[in-house]
Amino acid sequence: MAWNEPGNQGKDPWGNRGGKDQGPPDLDEVFRKFSNRFGGGGNFSGIGVVLVLVGALIVYGLSGLYKIEEAERGVVLRFGQFHSVVGPGLGLRPTFVDKVYPVNIQRVNRLNASGLMLTKDENVVTVQMEVQYRIEDPRKYLFNVTDPDQTLSEALDSALRYVVGHTTMDNILTVGREQVRQDTWEELDGIIAPYDMGIRVVDVAFKEARPPEEVKPAFDDAIAAREDEERYVQEATAYSRQVEPQARGQAERMLKEADAYRQRMVLEAEGEVARFNQLLPQYEAAPVVTRERLYLETMEQVYSNTSKVMVENDGGSMFYLPLDKIIQGQSPASVQPMQNAPSSQNRAIRSTTSEPINNRVSGRQGRN
Fold it and tell me: Residue 135 is part of which domain span?
């Protein structure tokens, strides 16, 4: 039952017994009772005021306590106007006089821009790009522009549409993506420079570029064909890099062999010249003998490279000497006449040709 309902004879909140008086108690009487409890008297009013003032000052001081993180800087406004920029740590500001706005200057912030855009060759392409930026000047970031993030987003969209409008669709989708990214970055820096927003663009990332869904299969085929072309070019380049060193090695080897052959021929010619210079005095002393000896030595060199010898006798018959079989130890009867001739002539030729040439030459030299 509530304290003020009929029939309630309990105590009400104001200390009225019986429930007859519904009004609140007198404040002066409350303070007087409170002072009497503490043995006060007339001095309670002054002490109470002091305590209230001290408590108010403490609360006022604590309400002005603030903290700036390590990655932040605090922008202080005094009566609504810029006053200073404070560093990290704890600080105390006068409440209702100063306001401190912390600004993170180390965090990398990100903004995206995307949409359908018209290219230079009048095609429509969907492009998405992301800008990453950092706050360098907290004061300019807060007060030079009303909404710096929105301003930067609109500047990015404007720069991206300008660059895409001056680029063909093939370059945007394939090989020209890096150039589009760099051009967009430069254009964005040029747009935001007059605003002096206190931010610095860290990077511009090309997130996505694709044709509209209606023509996407055709563009996928074109991209696949371009990738095949690049793959073939790379394979041909790898093959040329493999074959070219081999060809260079072969050419170098042929040049070395030709140079070695030239040197050998020169040395052999010089040896022949030296040999003929040595034979010249002997030829002058005995021309006929020297000439015959040279002839026999030359014929010996010629016949040493063949296994067949043709001998012509005085009767006009031509005989064949199988020297290869004679060397192998077969019978001399294998000598076959090329034409019919008397057997006495055959025996004479065999006995004559079977004598070593060197012996005959040495015998003639001894006789001479």
Answer: 109-211
Give the list of residues 6+ apart from residue 70 with CB closer than 8 angstroms, or none. 88
Sole residue written with tokens 């696949």: 224
Beta bridge partners of 324: none
Angle at 268 between CA 267 and CA 269, to 5 degrees: 90
What tokens does 104 get? 């993170």
Q: What is the pLDDT of residues 323-351, one digit of tens each?
A: 666 667 655 454 444 444 444 444 433 43
Return the bridge partners of 67, or none.
90
Please answer whether residues 185 and 153 qualify as being in contact, where contact means their C-beta atoms are separated by less than 8 angstroms. no
CB 163 within 8 A of CB 140: no
What secondary structure letter does DSSP report for 122?
S
| Model pTM score | 0.49
Residue 99 within a domain: yes
Nearest Cα residue to 341 out of 311, 297, 365, 300: 311
Mean pLDDT for the stretch of residues 153-169: 92
Residues 131, 204 within the same domain: yes
